[in-house]
Design brief:
- The chain is about 0% helix and about 55% strand.
- The chain is mainly β and about 130 residues long.
- Strands 2, 4, 5, 6, 9, 10 and 11 form a 7-stranded mixed sheet that branches. Strands 1-3-8-7 form a 4-stranded antiparallel sheet, with no helix packed on it.
Length: about 130
Amino acid sequence: VQLVESGGGLVQPGGSLRLSCAASGFTLDFYTIAWFRQVSGKEREGVSCIRRSENNIYYADYTESVKGRFTISRDNDKNTVYLQMNSLKPEDTAVYYCARRNEKYGQCGDYALSKYAYWGQGTQVTVSS
């Protein structure tokens, strides 16, 4: 199992970035994928997740601070999950990680770190003028 993030960078406040999480070694569609972020010296926090239920309904969840600005999506053919980030603020500055939930069809919205077995290496997002 491997997760590789990309797409981070430096952007001005109000700008946009799209992060990608390329997955390999497992069937992406069976597993919940979440985005987390971490500022140095602070705890890693859940930002968004996406899951497919066993009856083929897709769900997404967002932490309150990014609702209306971030959009999570997945392309199963490309084995990739995306995080489109618009209207970026300086407080969005962090290292962003994607992670795979331990079990198939795992619930979205529970961002306890112990429920995510596999992590990418992270990509830095800096929002600054």
